[in-house]
Structures are given as structure tokens and as C-alpha cells.
Amino acid sequence: MVTWLLGVACAIAATYQLMAVIAVLRHLFAKPFPLTQTPGVSILKPVRGDDPGFAQAIESHARLDYPDFELLFGVNHPEDPAPALIQDLARRYPQRRIEIEQVQTSSPNGKVGLLSALSALATKPVWVVNDGDIQVPAGYLKQVVAPLEDPGVCLVTCLYRVNARGLAACWEAFGISTDFAPSTLVAPLVGVKEFGLGSTLCFRAADWEAAGGFRAIENYLADDYQLAKRLTRRLGQRVVVSKQVVETNMAYRSWAEMWRHQLRWARTIRVSRPDGYLGLPVTHAGFWALLALGSGMWQVSVVVLLIRMLMGFLSSWLLLRSQQAWAFPLAPLWDVFAFAIWIAGWMGDTVEWRGNRYQLSRDGQLSRLD
């Protein structure tokens, strides 16, 4: 009986990996959206600190090849070092509208509190929100704005690759490229409509204001998911994953810090999409394959492992051009790690975020504990 159940689990996991292969290839060969109009764009960037790569990230936005855009930055700590770098950027690019707003926000999600303040300064009909450390190529805005010409599209998001420093960060970056990124592409194939990544959220300002604006999500941790959820449910339209890949930097002081970050992600997914979280072990093909190998089902194990490694290669190298692509044979070991995170995700409702501890409600709202 156990052998039969393990065989079924392997079959389901292998099927998911094949779906991921299809999703990756479908994305790679999809025709790009044509750009015939260039509406004005307000880029809203909540920032904190000057982490490695921050100066390069904000300068990449000032260099964008787009006729009409403005850069609006928000910080909420008077002693934050980021404003000095942004002011220097504004001096070097006087032709751009580059502004920085210092905001004292009481929102449980401080990032959303900043976005709410920045939205009051925005003057353009299209808004782009991305994390402070996101680095973009010159053609970024043309790529992410183009799909909005389709009236059936309400939101555009982007996959991202990681420039990692240190082994712990490299390990997480590897998981992003071989697990997280392809799962984002599988989502629309299985009917999931409510998804968006903090690396890029591009949408029409009027649509978002009609859906409640940033104040409607200031109590939630998963602000990117909540934004996508409200847009798609109100408008009945779809999310597009742009062919544009952006970059971010990542570094951890310890493996424990990386574990806490992964645990926060896991618990955020659990309270945001409990049904999806329950089904996550389906994606952990390597875990089931190694169990099968330990049970003597080596033929089944080899097939599942090969499919998993193929998917890891396609996603990390062909899709993202990740620095960690060479390690694709380790994808099954990532699945074992991810399964452990999944288990830990059930064991509590607290998370650590930006140096603070929070209690998560059943629907993903935040309550600060200290």
C-alpha cells in the first residue's frame, strides 16, 4: 500500500514538473506584446537603506528609455541613508522628475504606507511599483506597459534573477530560479489568476483606485498578492508575466536569517492562499523521488529526478540566465529543503519582517508583537 501511494505521489509530482517545462517553453516562445502607445508612467519605489546594489538599481531607473515617466521614492526613517543617494541621482539627471517623500506611517505594512503617500504625488495614468533594490534594463517600461494595451489585462508582473552574495543567499537564489519562477508560470495554466510579484507590478492608476487603492491593503503582509487579488476580482481581467526579467541583490548574515526569510514567505502563502499552500508538496518532486529511491523504486526515482533536473535547467538557464544555473542537478535537494520549510510553515502564525515580529491573522493581516 505504501509503495503504491509513493508511486502515485511520484507520478503527480512528475506531471507537475512536465507542466512546468511546458509553461517555461510557452513563456520563452510567446510573442511579445506590441507597443503602439506610450502613456505616462509614475514609478513608485518604497526604499529602505542602501543595501548592496541600491545605487545601481535606482540609477537604472533614471536611464530608462521611455518618453514620459517620473520617479517617486518614499522613506519612513529620518536617518535612512537612501535619500542622500536619491538626491545625488536627481542632481545628475535634472531632465527627470525625481522626488523623495519622507513619510511617517502607522500602517502595519510600512511599505504600503509609503506607497499610499507616493500615490498622492503620482501624476501619470499608469503606475509601476517595484522593490527598492530592483535593477532594470533600459527597455523595461516599454516591455511592462505594452500588455496594458490589451483591455483584458489589468496587471503586468516580472520574473527576477538574483545576484547573490554568500552561500545562504546563493541557495535561496537557486530555489527562486528552479522552483519559484516556474511555479509563477504554471499558475495561469492551472487557473490561478491572483498573482503578482513585488519585482514589478504595472497597472492602470484608475483601475487601482477603483479597487480601493493602497489603503485597502495596508494591514496585509502579502501586499503584491492582495493588489493582484483586488484588481483581478474587480475587473475580471488577467495578469500577464512579462518576458522582461529584472534583477535584485541578496545577501544574508547567516543561514538562520535565510531560513527565517523562507519561513516568512511560507506562512504568508499559507494565510493568503491556504488551498494552494496545501498542495505545495506536489511541486517537491525531488523529495518524493528520493523517498522512492529509499524504498527500492529506483526506476521511478530516476525518471522523476531526470524530469526535475530538466525543468531546473530550463528555468534557471534558458528562462532566467541565473548565476546558479550550473547547479541545476541539485534541484532535488532544494525540494527536500522546501518540504521542510512547508512543514515549518504550519507550525506557527508569527513572522519576522524588517526587524520586527508580527502575528498573522487567518486572512493575512498583520499585528505587531513588539
Structural commentary:
This protein has 2 domains: 2-27 and 282-368, no CATH class; 32-269, Spore Coat Polysaccharide Biosynthesis Protein SpsA, Chain A. The relative contact order is 0.16. The chain has helices spanning 2-29, 54-62, 82-92, 110-119, 140-145, 167-189, 205-210, 223-235, 255-272, 274-278, 285-294, 298-319, 331-346, and strands at 41-46, 69-75, 97-102, 126-129, 153-165, 201-204, 238-251, 350-353, 356-360, 366-368. It contains 13 helices and 10 strands. The protein has a 7-stranded mixed sheet, with helices on both faces. Strands 8-9-10 form a 3-stranded antiparallel sheet. It is an alpha/beta fold and 370 residues long. Strand 8 and strand 9 (356-360) form a beta hairpin.
Poorly predicted ranges (pLDDT <50, ≥5 residues)? none
Highest-level CATH class of the largest domain: Alpha Beta
**Helix/strand order, N-terminal first:** HEHEHEHEHEHEHHEHHHHHEEE
Termini separation comes to: 49 Å
CATH architectural category of the largest domain: Alpha-Beta Complex
Strand content: 15-25%
Largest sheet geometry: 7 strands, mixed
Number of distinct helices: 13
The count of β-strands is 10
Shape: globular
What is the topology, as strand order, of the major beta sheet?
A: 3-2-1-4-6-5-7
> How many distinct folded domains?
2
Provide mean pLDDT, rounded. 92
